[in-house]
Design a protein that fits this description.
Blueprint lengths: L3 E5 L3 H19 L7 E5 L2 H10 L2 H17 L4 E4 L8 H6 L8 H11 L4 E5 L2 H5 L1 H8 L4 E3 L3 H13 L8 H16 L5 E3 L17 E3 H13 L8
Parallel strand pairs: 1-2, 1-3, 4-5, 4-6, 6-7
Length: 235
């Protein structure tokens, strides 16, 4: 079994989900008392968010690159950035290490293709929804991406940073997200990407008839598959 390196803490609320899912997936595959081999480097999210707000992506890239190098020195054989937004600096982080960095949008595009979804709604931070670094991965695979209008982009972004990253889930925010998903379905979306690793704390498949693609779960599943290549079930 390969050792998985996690660059987490962005926010730690969703990093918990990564840890739980990776261990559950490994146990499902191998049985017995098996669990995932994981090394975690958890950043101070306040520092990262300050960089985001200031547009200082180079500084945030340097912070995550330091984390990736620390994980590699600790034995990580593949690395995940446990957030969608910070894949904006994916290339700088990958260049800092010699082990593969699993891109969350690549894993998500694979899942969309398997589900034959060609038009998808995207919810996430305003950076993920409005900038090109994430959407381009999907568009290059022939997938049309729909995002909310400007006011709803700000609403979704506010809920992520001011509620979900702080461990707060409000019923009224859930209702707003479901309204937005419904409107994007009306525009032709065949599924919805939960393109922020915290959104899965608020919205699940049971909440909407539209197929839900939770990037946290997709990213973790792909990492577990890669870590377990060649492994057989035993106890």
């Amino acid at each position: 079994m390969k050792t998985i390196g996690l660059i987490g803490g962005m926010s730690w609320e969703s990093t918990v989900t990564y840890y739980q899912q990776l261990n559950r997936l490994v146990k499902e595959q191998l049985g017995g008392l098996h669990s995932a081999k994981i090394v975690l480097y958890s950043v101070d999210f306040e520092e990262i968010e300050t960089c985001q707000s200031a547009g200082d992506w180079d500084k945030s890239a340097a912070i995550l690159a330091d984390g990736a190098r620390a994980l590699e020195r600790s034995g990580a054989e593949l690395i995940l950035i446990c957030t969608n937004t910070m894949h904006k600096v994916y290339s700088q982080v990958q260049d800092a290490v010699n082990v593969p960095l699993l891109h969350i949008a690549d894993a998500t595009a694979d899942a969309l293709e398997r589900a034959n979804v060609s038009t998808v709604a995207l919810l996430g931070t305003k950076y993920t929804m409005c900038q090109d670094f994430y959407k381009r991965k999907l568009v290059d695979r022939g997938i049309q991406v729909l995002i909310p209008g400007e006011a709803d982009v700000e609403r979704v972004n506010h809920v992520i940073f001011e509620e979900l990253c702080l461990g707060v889930q409000k019923p009224q925010s859930k209702a707003e997200f479901l309204r937005i998903i419904g409107e994007l379905a009306g525009q032709g979306a065949q599924g919805v990407i939960l393109g922020c690793t915290e959104i899965g704390l608020l919205i699940g498949q049971e909440d909407t008839p539209l197929p839900v693609f939770d990037t946290t779960l997709i990213h973790a599943r792909r990492a577990a598959e890669l870590a377990l290549e060649g492994e057989g079930k035993d106890s």
